[in-house]
From TrEMBL, chain A:
Residues 1-34 are annotated as: Disordered. Pfam families: PaaB. This is Ring-1,2-phenylacetyl-CoA epoxidase subunit PaaB. InterPro entries: PaaB, PaaB_sf. Residues 1-32 have a biased composition (Low complexity). The lineage of its organism: Bacteria, Bacillati, Actinomycetota, Actinomycetes, Kitasatosporales. It comes from Streptomyces yunnanensis.
Amino acid sequence: MTTPRPTHAPAAPAEPTRPHTTTEPTATTGPTDWPLWEVFVRSRRGLSHTHAGSLHAPDAQMALRNARDLYTRRSEGVSLWVVPSTQITASSPDEKDTFFEPAGDKPYRHPTFYEIPEGVHHL
Amino acid sequence: MTTIAPEDTGQEALFDATIAADERIEPRDWMPDDYRASLVRQIAQHAHSEIIGMQPEANWITRAPSLRRKAILMAKVQDEAGHGLYLYSAAETLGTGRDELLDKLHTGRQKYSSIFNYPTLTWADVGAIGWLVDGAAITNQVPLCRCSYGPYARAMVRICKEESFHQRQGYELLLTLSRGTETQHAMAQDAIDRWWWPSLMMFGPPDDESAHSAQSMAWKIKRHSNDELRQRFVDICVPQAETLGLTLPDPDLRWNEERGHWDFGPIDWTEFREVLKGNGPCNDERIGRRRRAHQEGAWVREAAAAHAAKHPAHPPHAGTDQEEAAR
């Protein structure tokens, strides 16, 4: 599973809040760095949309068109979602232990937890 | 970027354990600063190579000998643009913005592969690039699909899938020329003569002179050494050249029974270093063209941004499934 990057992540700050650290501005960089969008592709009917990657675009319509050109050049999709990266909220990797801990000690949620005698079928 | 001192939290131990277990590091995981810097350097160079790499081949689009070849070449060059964008997006997950990456390319502070500083003199060069340059790239890239950094590995999976057509179209093109008229055959041979050695240089300096190799391999960013991959490429190419009916320009090329590999002659690393330093045949042309394209596209970026600002609430025509159902 791919991971969209959230806005509050220190490792991947989102576009609008990203500190601009370019040391020497040059003529090649314009003031119009477009926002970042996350792209989700449904590869065929019956499957969920899956995160494919990201791209820059000035607005949602352009993001969709760019996503089509970038992520479905070989008919990889029948449906596309684009989401501003700043709109994604993600769990923090630091809380990985405590946040997901409640599920850790509940093996009885899995069918393999139960012992069934040999010869019992359809169970 | 605020990095908490790893000894306080055991984060470095967690990072090391993740690498040791052959699992992937994801963007928001703690990682050593050098790991991050190493990845940014490598992914950026890779992305820049895809973008600059569009130029030598695009040079022949208007003069492709048939509509079939033209459509193929356009699709290939479009793919290179796509690959550059996948890679920029992977680099951005490390906290380096797109504009910063482009700026560093335009000002020469980040490199691209030295191979793209050679000119494409004839139509056969399109074939030689596909077969040799993309072939070398694939040999390099396949192991990167298992790179320890998740977003880079995922981008490489996508790229490798798409690259295989690039290599095959080049091989087919050369085969057609090789089996054509005498002049066409000679043109194909000339292209291979010029592209063979620079393609071998694409794997980077020999292992004992490679600045970043050892650390990159310890971090499982790289899985094989430069020389190992170079040898693999030579072994693959020799029989392929034979089928083409063309020769590789190396008098020292011979099968080594003992090693089970093809021996090949010495590489001119002086040439490699000169091209890397900026003294290749096309360095100025490539970077000049890239800067110009970026500058000339400024008004388009500005217009699109202005349009977006004017229509902030411009609704997309369909939302998610749930939103659709709620309407």
